[in-house]
Amino acid sequence: MQRRFKDYLIISLKGIAMGAADAVPGVSGGTIAFISGIYEELISTISNVNISLFKTLFNKGIKSFWKELNGNFILSLMLGIVISFISFMRLAKYLLEHHPVLIWSFFFGLIIASIYFIGKQITKWNLAVILALIVGAVIAFYITTLPALASNDNSLYLFIAGAIAICAMILPGISGSFILIILGAYKTLSDALHDFDIKKILIFTSGAVIGLLSFSHVLKWLFKHYHNITLAILTGFIFGSLNKVWPWKKTVSVMNDETGDIVNFSSITDLGTLSVYQKQMNDFESYKTVLEESVLPIHYSELNSYIASSQLTTSIFLMILGFLTIFILERLGSKK
Questions:
Q1: Do 277 and 178 lie in a common domain?
Q2: How far apart are CA 272 and CA 251, in angstroms?
Q3: Considering just the CA atoms, what is the radius of gyration of the chain in Å?
Q4: Does residue 314 form part of some domain?
Q5: What residue ranges are annotated as transmembrane (predicted)?
Q6: In this structure, are 141 and 261 located in the same domain?
Q7: What is the SS3 assignment for 289?
Q8: Number of domains composing the chain
Q9: Could you tell me if 254 and 262 are in contact, meaning their C-beta atoms sit under 8 angstroms apart?
């Protein structure tokens, strides 16, 4: 169908929501794409980038190339993602450092609603679909329990990390930023972006482009031949990821950012959560979380000697707000 300027503006707004989600380690922009009704078009558009597309450019000109590329869609979406990711990254960093329970509460509510809206798109339930849902949930939950690796700036490793992370970034429920943390490449990439290290940025980008083009073909094929099973796996991914975005955490081990040594958090402080310790010491750089566990709100306050309130009432409000945000995105996605 023919899209108008208003339609592309809405696509850019969806891109802004995706970029904001991807800026938070633990939340996937793919979830937002799915809920807002552009996921399958996005996967199909990416997978159409091949040699024949560039033959069109040379043989028929840029107008035919742009149309076959679905260029207006990609440009509108990427514009929103880039603007949001760059601008929201600083805000996300501040919120994660100073108000972690509140920002995770909002995303927890958002993801709870996502499970419902993606799951309801499964048109036929059978044993295979149920098993796919369970497998997806188990895999995602297991990933959220993995400890982070030490930082690694090897060029080949950074290339592979880019390929893996971009695949996670377009999968609902699995965060590309979180995968980078697990792989030990998040700090390397952050430093490269901060220092404008062109070599490392190009290596990572090359891995991401190759990973994205390859994985999009796999997803497109799965949607075409196993639509319900694919939806079930993706729903399972989102369900399993809830462990990562649970607002109340106990820190088990941390990494010294200067030396790379991994130590038990209890050997550093009597407080139970790194974010509380960082806020009290006003030091957000010395240690990074390696392993953490989800706890109940009351346990969270006890772990931190009641220095940090569980902020239960505000957290519940933000969970509801996150839940309702998905209704708005879903309504936008359902408009023709």
A1: no
A2: 6
A3: 21
A4: no
A5: 69-89, 101-118, 125-144, 156-189, 201-223, 306-329
A6: no
A7: strand
A8: 2
A9: yes
Q: Do 120 and 136 belong together in one domain?
A: yes
Mean pLDDT of 165-182: 72
CB 216 within 8 A of CB 65: no
- Reading the block at residue 264, the tokens are 């038990």
Question: Would you say residue 256 lies in a domain?
Answer: yes
Residues 227 and 281 grouped into a single domain: no
Structure tokens at 33: 């794409």
Domain that holds residue 225: 5-244+319-334
22: in domain: yes
pTM of the shown model: 0.74
In a domain, 300, yes or no: yes
- Phi/psi of residue 290, nearest 5 degrees: -110, -45
Per-residue pLDDT at 280 exceeds 50: yes
Tokens of 318: 């933000």
Residue 138's pLDDT band, with cuts at 50, 70 and 90, is very high
Claim to verify: residue 185 and residue 301 sit in the same structural domain: no
Let me know whether 26 and 87 are in one domain: yes
Percent of the chain surpassing pLDDT 70? 91
Q: Is the pLDDT of residue 260 over 70?
A: no
Distance CA 59, CA 57 (A): 6
Same domain for 259 and 125 = no
Q: Is the pLDDT of residue 52 over 90?
A: no
Model confidence band, residue 315 (pLDDT cutoffs 50, 70, 90): very high
Confidence of residue 320 (pLDDT cuts 50, 70, 90): very high
Question: In the predicted model, is pLDDT for residue 288 greater than 60?
Answer: yes
Closest C-alpha among 5, 12, 4, 62 to residue 36: 12
Residues 323 and 302 in one domain: no
Long-range contacts of 323-328 (CB under 8 A, 24+ apart): 323/109, 323/110, 323/112, 323/113, 324/113, 325/109, 325/110, 325/113, 326/35, 326/110, 326/113, 326/114, 326/117, 327/113
pLDDT of 274 > 70? The answer is yes
Q: Which tokens go with 149?
A: 């690796």
